[in-house]
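Dear U.,

For the methods section draft, I wanted the exact inputs and outputs in one place so we can describe them consistently. I've listed the two proteins in the order they'll appear in the manuscript figures. Please don't edit the token lines directly; just add comments below if something needs changing.

First protein:
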Amino acid sequence: MSEERKHRVSRRQFLTYTLTGVGGFMAAGMLSPMVRMALDPALEDTDDSDFISIGLSEDDVTEEPQLVNFDVEIEDGWYTSEQTQSAYVFRQDGEILALSPICTHLGCTVGWEGNQDYPDQFYCPCHHGRFEPDGTNIQGTPPTRPLDVYEVEVRDGMVHLGNIRERG
């Protein structure tokens, strides 16, 4: 003989299920904006091809490195500002090369022919770091890697710089 048993939910079980469900929805509602805020910048499409004109024509680029200052728009959260950056731009073996003037040792600013004892070299006055004209660090000096290099593109006869790449 089969006994039909009706499954009845007790008041305690009903409250447990209800409060757990409501609490889960509330937690999801509170956490979803935080998770989105944390993940949104990582999932945002970045345009890696942002090149900025530095105001220098292709014909003005010589074999002698010249320091060029240019403005970059920086977005920090909801605040947008312009920051002035610099690059040494010159021709080497027929190609245009743009090097960062920031020493890879401790972040000082290097200068082209910055020391009379070392002509035709980038020189860092802080700790006597030296770099070859192509940005390669000279052995025996404090920098442990070459100067960083900018991506270079020529559009309509004008030089544009892109992202900076670490070499080394």
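Second protein (the one for the lower panel):
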Amino acid sequence: MRHALVLCAAMLALAGCAAPTADLEGPVDPLGDFQLGFSEVVAPNLEAMLVTETVDAETWTAAVDRALETRFGRFGGSRCYHLGVSVEAYSMPPPLVPGRLALAARVTVWDDAAQRKLNEETKLITVIRALDGSISRAARTRADKVRLLAEGLARQTEEWLREMQETEGWFGAAGEGESAAVECVRR
């Protein structure tokens, strides 16, 4: 019995360490009528937390924008939505310093047709990854760690949007507005 519990705990721990883009390899599960217009990523108040490697705002904004475009560019819904993201803080302990990788950002969703925000208050999304053997091997360089955190932020943003679709009715149902399909202007 004890071995079964240890095995279950190990499997759950490994599942939590899965690559943030592993789900992108399968078929696309529509997000209602969502089609990404563009993502606007800024970092005007970026804070480095604790003992960390230095990463400039331009690096963070480029990595987060790329991760958002990759993840949300897959959806071919009938309405344009835009994502506004402000990268707020990060922590990337240098080699040999214990700690966790972390990235925090605030997200807003803009409905292009309605010309309004879907969320009046920005959503704070925080990505925290332990520096265990799997991550340190998979993300040895600073660029790899930045990419890993940016992809994690994009994945958690999608999870939040799916939750809001279910609980608040955001994005309608898949195919709901297909007759009025539009081509979103992409930057």
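Candidate sentences for the figure legend, describing the second protein: Residues 47 and 162 are 29 Å apart (CA to CA). The longest strand covers residues 79-91.

Thanks,
Y.
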